[in-house]
Automatic annotation (TrEMBL):
This is Sigma-54 dependent transcriptional regulator. It comes from the Bacteria. Pfam families: AAA_lid_14 (PF25601), HTH_8 (PF02954), Response_reg (PF00072), Sigma54_activat (PF00158). Keywords: ATP-binding, DNA-binding, Nucleotide-binding, Phosphoprotein, Transcription, Transcription regulation. CDD domains: AAA, REC_NtrC1-like. The lineage of its organism: Bacteria, Pseudomonadati, Pseudomonadota, Gammaproteobacteria, Alteromonadales.
Amino acid sequence: MEYSALLVEDSMSLGALYTEYLRAEGINVTHVHYGEDALRELVKWQPDLLILDIKLPDISGLDILKQVYGKYPNISTIMITAHGSIDIAIDAMRSGAFDFLVKPFDSKRLSITVRNALKQKHLLELVTQYEKSLPKGRYQGFIGDSLVMQSVYKTIDCVAKSKASVFITGESGTGKEVCAQAIHQTGNRADKPFIALNCASIPKELIESEIFGHCKGAFTGAHSNRDGAATRADNGTLFLDEICEMDLDLQSKLLRFIQTGTFQRVGGTKEEHVDIRLISATNRKPWEEVKLGHFREDLFYRLHVIPIELPPLRARGNDVLLLAKKILKTYSKEEGKNFTEFSPAATNTLLAYTWPGNVRQLQNVIRQIVVLNEGTTVEHLMFPHPLIQIQSSSAEKQYKCDNDSLIYEQNDTRRESTLLLNESSSHSIKPLWLVEKQTIEGAIAMCDGNIPKAAALLDISPSTIYRKRMSWEELETQQ
C-alpha cells in the first residue's frame, strides 16, 4: 500500500534530505517551506503523514498542529525541531502529535518513527471498520439491534443521499415518521426543512390547500395568501404520511407535481416551482389499494421507487426490552419518578405480549405505569389489566427467546386438562368438530384474537386453524 506525506521544513538542504529518507520507505512526499503553504495543501488533499517543523518562518508548527488535529484527525503528525525540550514535546503530544523528533536525526530514527505512525494509523482504520460492522443499537431516532432493524438501517444509509422517492410501509406505531426523518438527517438536505403532513388527519376539502397553499379569497376563511407544505419544504424533504387516504382527484394533481416539480395554489393561476425530496408512507398495503381502485397505479409507481417496510414490534425480538428500558428512563425523568428497571416477571410480560399498537402502545403503557405507580422497579402487577391477563395465562407455558423468535412450550398435562374442561362444559355428547371448534376459538379468545399465539398454545400451526375455520363454515352451512 502506498502512503503519502506532507513535509513542512523551511531548510532547503534538510528538506531534500528528509524527502530522500521518506522516499526510501516507499512514501510519496510533497515538500513545502512555509506554514501557510502547508495549510493550503491540506485544504486540497490530506496526506497519511504530516512531518512538521515546529519553528517556521511564518507560523508556529504547534499552531498548525492544533488546526490539523481539529480538522483532519486522521492525519498522523510527527513534529521535528532543533530546539528540543520536554515542555515542547509535551505540548506537541497534547495537541495530537504521534511522536517528536529532535534534529539532527538519521534515516533509521525517522524510518522507525514513520513505520510506527503508519502502523498505528492502519490499526485505527481496522478498529473503525470493525465498529462500523457491529450491529447498531441506536440509529437516527431508532432503538433496536435486531436483524430486521439492521436491514432497515442499511437501506436508509443507501438511499439517504439519493433524490429517489421513498415509500415507507408498516403498521401504525412502527415509526414511519422516525424513518422519514432518519432519511432526511442522513442525506444531503439535513440542514434544510423537513415538513411532515398526515393526509388522514386533514379534511378532504382542505388537504390540497395544506399541500400546495392557497390565495386570498380562494374559499371561505381564506383571508390571506398562505404557503403550503410544498413551498415550506423547498430544497428540503416533504413527508406525506397515510398517503393512501388521499382523494383520487388530488392524487392526479400530486402526480403532476412529482413529474414537473410545479404546482398552482388553490385559487391561483401562477405556476410555482420547488425542489423537494418526497417521502410517503402508509399503514395499508398500497398495491391492494391500487387493485381496489383507491390509489392511482401511475402514482404508485412514481412513489414506490425505494420501498422500506418497517417491522412490527412483535417481529423484533429483544428490541422490545431495549425500547422499554429507554422509554422508562425518559418518562421517569420527565415525571420526577425513580423507576430504573423491570422485574423478571415484568420482563416476561414485555416479551409475551404481541403489542398490536407497536412502539406507540409500548410508550403509552410505560407512561401509564410511571404516572400511576411509585418505586424503582416496574413489577408485573403495575401493567394494565390486558397485559396482566397475558402474563397470568403464560404461567401455563415457558418462554424461550432466541434472537427474534419467541418459542412457546406448554405442559402436556395442562393442555389435556384444558380439553377436558371444554368437553365437560356440556352434558350432551357433541360432534367432534364442534368440540374442536370450541377449543380452538376459546384459545383464540384467550389470546385476544392472536391466531399465531393461539396455535402455539395448542401445539398446531396457524395454517391449520385457518383451514379448520373454512371446514367449519361448510359444516355449519350443511346443517
